[in-house]
Every structure is written in structure tokens, then in C-alpha cells.
Amino acid sequence: MGVIGIIGAMEEEVSCLKEKMTEVSVTRKASMDFYEGLLEGKKAVVVRSGIGKVNAAVCAQILADDFKAEAIINTGIAGSLNNDINIGDIVLSTDVLYHDMDATGFGYPKCQIPQMEEFSFPANVRMRREALLVCREVNPEIQVFEGRIASGDQFVSDKALKDEIIKNTGAFACEMEGAAIGHTAYLNHIPFLIIRAISDKADGSASMDYAEFEAKAIEHSVRLTQGLLARLG
Ligand code: ADE
Question: Which of 32, 138, 146, 157 could form a disulfide with 204 if both were Cys (CB 3.0 to 4.6 A apart)?
Fold first, then answer.
């Protein structure tokens, strides 16, 4: 496999991976620093995109155009949309969509992008399968799920909004970048996988312990991303 692009929205989600890279060179574009080098012996580009769909899409397109990424992994945290999925657990994307896409006024179902055939963008099956195996090896103490991930430019912390997203999408987790990365990868014919560890229940119940949960979740997601890289190619 050629270059693997790894995107995290926040610095905490990628700093560990950057530290583990060798033969690093940094290129700045669109206000983002792209760390190019070797990770687990594989050619990789690790980058913090910033939060939200536009940052994520711009970042993924640069990985495609300037770095010729042959696969894209998005590592990070998410809110759980399923009672069985606990804080710290991992969700691997089967597919991704925008929970805030709304052209219902034109007769489209909620979440459907007008004039596009796809309702959601499918993740790469091989990357998913490998990630599932690796996750059980490197994070044996947590559960790993495969399911739909819904993205939107909203931090979901309200029970009514959470329930609405579940009703419209059937997603297992919500976050703010995965669908934009999957969409961009899809348009460029690049296989992708979204790896998200659960940091909260997306219902406003996040407590004083949120920072601790977030750190633990990031640890799980980073450990899996690193393990997956070792296995790919
Ligand atoms: N990332 C982590 N938790 C989230 C939430 N509840 N909503 C959106 N993005 C998130």
C-alpha cells in the first residue's frame, strides 16, 4: 500500500501518532500541518484537520491531491447513540452520513444529499475487518462495534436531538467530521475507515469526568490506529 493519510480533528487525537513517526517532514497547507514520514514502517501523513465538516473535507482533499493518499483513516472520539455502546468503546464505520443534511423541503428523505444517489458513504470492508481484529488484540478490555456513524456541525448534547438523529439515521455514534472525510474519499475513489472511541452519551449527561473519559477514549482510538497501520499493506 502507498501513503496512508491519518486525520484527527483535535491535536490530542494525533499528537501521539506524530511523536511516533520517523523521517518526518512537515508541509503546511490550508492552515494545516501535514506530517509526512514513517509510522509502523508504513508511509503515512498525519494531520490535525480542525473541527467540523469543512475542515475535514479540505484536509482529506489535500491528502488526495498533494500526498496521493491511497487510504484514509480518521481517528477520534464520538458520542454514543446506542445504549449498549459505553464510554471508551470503539465504533468502526460501516458507512457515514450527514445527520444535519436536510432537503426535506424538496421531498428528499432527511440526511439525503440532493441529486446524489448515495444515502451514505461506505467504508472499506478490508480496513474494517482488519481494524476489528486489531482492536480485539490491542484493546481487549473494551467492546468494539461496527455501525453507521453520523456527522454534523453540532456537538450533540441534547436528548431530543440525539433521539432525532437515531430515528433518522440508525447510527451508532455521532461526531463532526467522519462523513465529510468519507464523502471526500468516496469522490476520489480512496478507501477509508472512521475509527471513533466513545467519550460521552451525546445527551448532556457528560459530567466533571469528561476530560478523563476523553483522554481514555483517545488512547483507545490511537492504539487501534497504530495497530491497524502495522497490519495494512
Ligand atoms: N465528539 C465527541 N462527542 C461528541 C458529541 N456528543 N457530538 C458531536 N461530536 C462529538
Answer: 157
Say which of 13, 40, 89, 175 is annotated catalytic.
13
Q: Tens digit of pLDDT for each residue in 113-160?
A: 999 999 999 999 999 999 999 999 999 999 999 999 999 999 999 999
CA distance 108 to 103: 6
List, for residues 21-62, the tens digit of each pLDDT value.
999 999 999 999 999 999 999 999 999 999 999 999 999 999
- Residue 174, ligand 1, Cβ within 6 A: yes
Q: Is the pTM of this model over 0.70?
A: yes
* Ligand 1 contact via 161 beta carbon (within 6 Å): no
